Amino acid sequence: MSESDKGAATAHPTTPRGSLFGKIVICGFVGAVILTECLLAYFLIPSADEVARRAEARMTEKIQKHVNGEDGENGEEHALVEHDLGEYSITYHLSDSNKSYRIDFTLFGVVTPDQEQELAERFEHAQHRFRDQVIFEVRNSDVNDLSDPGLGLIKRRILEKSNRLLGATVLQGVVFSDFSFVEH
Q: pTM, whole model, 2 decimals?
């Protein structure tokens, strides 16, 4: 190899120029895309509280339409009646902490008068599964949900699971009476 060949080899390195700049541009572009997706998700996807508020508003509107008649033009109001779904006394222990909780309440189902007989018949056939489902939902609830004054999330979950268990949408709502939540 001659002296001129060695000089030519050292003057032109074999790595391409600008490879670091190209990597920085690609990383910047990918970072911008990820940041844009995160911002869009943050602003467009509703929070859990917003979803719960929308569901409650939709259910209230649905009940009002049902009570006022399907077309909303019927001026005669149908009174909702309460059907006793049992008394509950639930005690459970949290294994991760040394706390026990006792929850006592009476549960009532809200129905239209024309569906009260249907609820009584369906409840008669499924009352033990119904009790099991209510106890499961209460025990599966977070302490914050049980401390909520309106018990909104628990009511919605019990209502949804109850109508599914009963095989028809007969319950319009559930009401807790004499609710007591005590930590031991």
A: 0.56
